[in-house]
Amino acid sequence: YLFWSDLMIIVIAAHPFYDMKEFAKSLALRFGTNFQDIDKLSLTKNAGLFHNPPSKNAVYEGSVFAHKFEGDVARVYVKWSDEFLVKQAMDSGISFEDANKNVESAFNDEAEYLKKFFDVDIKDLGVYDLVVSADRLDIDGLISVIERYINKIKK
Questions:
Q1: Backbone phi, psi, residue 39, to 5°
Q2: DSSP 118-139
Q3: What 3 state SS string does 60-104 have?
Q4: End-to-end CA separation in angstroms for the chain
Q5: More confident: 71 or 7
Q6: What is the mean pLDDT of residues 13-17?
Q7: What is the spatial distance between Cα 85 and Cα 80, in angstroms, rounded to a whole number?
Q8: How would you classify the pairing of strands 34-36 and 9-14?
Q9: What contacts 32, CB < 8 A, 6 or more positions away?
Q10: Which SS3 state, helix, strand or coil, does residue 117 take?
Q11: How many Å separate Cα 65 from the centre of its chain?
Q12: Contact, 32 vs 2, CB < 8 A?
């Protein structure tokens, strides 16, 4: 486990087709901290969370947090190629065309929602401190890359 000498927030985000909650929970366990599960509906009702988060030593999941949190925040985007995401979708037994539509519509629907309610452009990866290409990495590999990065910036 990595134990932080001071408080820090880690935000994990990815393409909306890929649910990052379980990964974020695993990452929080690895760092010996907690995962803060806050849904978008709660955020629309309490935007003050961005200025005063429930925990300043935690892992959060989602593009909204990456774009809106202030202060000492490590923002990580896990990036899979569209081809990888379509293949993942096809593993559930759907056609290439349907898989492609599902991946594309998940992104477009989320992009529209986040722009409308939070003024967030999820195409803007410039807000992230680390963008990890994940096509060739398993969960342990991803956690290892992120852990090395966090260790470097906390020195």
A1: -80, 165
A2: H---TT-GGG-SEEEE-TT--H
A3: EECHHHHHHCCCCEEEEEEECCHHHHHHHHHCCCCCHHHHHHHHH
A4: 16
A5: 71
A6: 92
A7: 7
A8: unpaired
A9: 1, 2, 3
A10: helix
A11: 9
A12: yes
Cα separation values, 101 from 2, 14, 50, 104, Å: 40, 18, 33, 5
- Two tokens, residue 34: 């907690």
Task: Please report the beta strands in the chain, taking only residues with DSSP state E, as ranges in sequence order.
Answer: 9-14, 34-36, 58-61, 73-79, 130-133
pLDDT band (50, 70, 90) for residue 129: very high
Per residue in 34-61, pLDDT tens?
Answer: 999 887 767 766 667 777 787 888 999 9
Phi, psi of 138 (to 5 degrees): -90, -175
Q: How many degrees, rounded to 5, is the angle at CA 80 between CA 17 and CA 71? A: 85
Residue 5 token pair: 């000498």
Structure tokens at 123: 């195409």
Token look-up 């490590």 returns 74
Enter the tokens of residue 98.
């349907």
Q: Do residues 13 and 75 make contact, with C-beta atoms less than 8 angstroms apart?
A: yes
